[in-house]
Each structure stands twice: as structure tokens, then as C-alpha cells.
Amino acid sequence: MNPRDRVWLFDLDDTLHNASHRAFKELNASMTAYIETHLGLTTEEAVALRHRYWTRYGATLTGLQRHHGVKPAHFLHETHRLPGLEAHLHGHAHDLAALRRLPGRKLLMTNAPRGYAERVLAAIGLSDAFERLICVEDMEIFGHSRPKPDARMFRVVLARLRLVPARCVLVEDTLIHQKTARGLGLKTVWMQRWLRKAAEGRRLQHRPAYVSRRVRSLAALARSPHF
To answer: Domain 23-79, what fold?
Structure first.
């Protein structure tokens, strides 16, 4: 394959910036508060529900929409206000340089809403690094939110953008997303720049079979993009 025919699908949080340091803590708190307010639950019940839906569906919103009739636009607007977010985000010039050196098309594919993604990319200096943003608003099937790792959503998005799975590479920190993508014929890169563990907290010593490659920086990926 000509390297310039490759399509890179980059995740955002904990792949292009260190979301676990601050952003995820604030997001988790705002989602918990939303569930408390709109479902009438205690803090402990809201935390448990949020975690259960995230584990089952890959996103809290999916469970809230499916089981409680929560409107996605309202949930995303209320939970992603995050005042002062940009002050805690830091970009690196070498990341932008690495992305520019990487041959092929580059798209962002995130379970986050578009407004949040645009704010983060601007703060870390990567606003112009991607030709297209595929955000959670774009991951709907028949009116229902179907974020990563939903296989049907991957198929719909790839078909909509006329992308050939064999030419695509998903660059992610979340293994379950990569497992689904690999099953559909995409190659996968596990970004371990900030997170070195699986979602359930266990440290992995070996690269899972469905991960094509494991890297710890964008620079490392750009130095050797052929695999």
C-alpha cells in the first residue's frame, strides 16, 4: 500500500493529550452531578450507574439515552461546560510536527462532543492537524447514540466516508475499541503515552493479538509508520 493511501483515525483523550490528569476528573464529576439532578439519585448511586453504563456501552450517554430517555444534546451541553479547561491543557510542538510527518490522511474519531474536541485541539495546538472530526454527535444509528466500540457505528461511519477498512489505522488508548476495529479489518495502534494499563486497571505485559503496534509517542509512530 502506498503510505499516502493510509487513513489514520486518532482518538483524542489520553491519546493526544493527558485527559486523566484533570479533564476526566472534572468530566466524571459533572456527569455524576447530572445523573443526581435528573434521575434523583444519591452521589453513590449516580457514580455506580455512570460506571456501569460506561463499562457496558462504552459511554455513559448511551445507557442514559436507552434506559432513561435522556436527550444527548442536553446531556453533552450540560456536562461539558468545564470552565477553565484550557488552563490545564498543554500541547507540544513536536506532536504537531510528528503528525505532519505522518503520511496519509488524518481524522479525529472521539466519543467526546464536537465542542469539547475543538476546545481541546485548540488548547494543545492541533486544530489544523486533522481534515475531519468524527465526534459522538456523528455516532448515531436510528436516533440512538452508538459510540466506540460499537461495531455497527464503525461500519456506518466508514461507509459514510467511503473508507476502506484495510487502509485505516485506529490510534487509541482504549483496548476494547481496538479489538472491535481489528475485527472489522482495521489496523490498530495502542498509544501508551499516558496510560499503561487496560480499562479495568490491570497492567499488561504483552501486546494483545488484536493490537498491530504499541507506541508511547506520536514521534515514534511518525518515525516508523509502515506496518
So the answer is: DNA polymerase; domain 1 (1.10.150)
Q: Exposure string (b/e) for 44-69, b if CB count within 10 Å is 16 or more?
A: eebbebbeebbeebbbbbbbbbeeee
Residues of CATH 3.40.50.1000 domain(s) within the chain?
Answer: 3-17+90-223
Residue-wise pLDDT tens digits, 136-177: 999 999 888 899 999 999 999 999 999 999 999 999 999 999
15 vs 21: CA distance, rounded Å? 13
Options 3.40.50.1000, 3.50.50.60, 3.40.50.150, 2.40.50.870; CATH for 3-17+90-223 is 3.40.50.1000
In this prediction the pTM is 0.92
The per-residue pLDDT for 85 is 93
- For residue range 5-31, what is the model confidence (pLDDT) as tens digits? 899 999 999 999 999 888 999 999 999
Query: What is the distance between the alpha carbons of residues 155 and 31, in angstroms, rounded to a whole number?
Result: 28
Residue 163 carries which side chain, given as an amino acid letter?
A: L
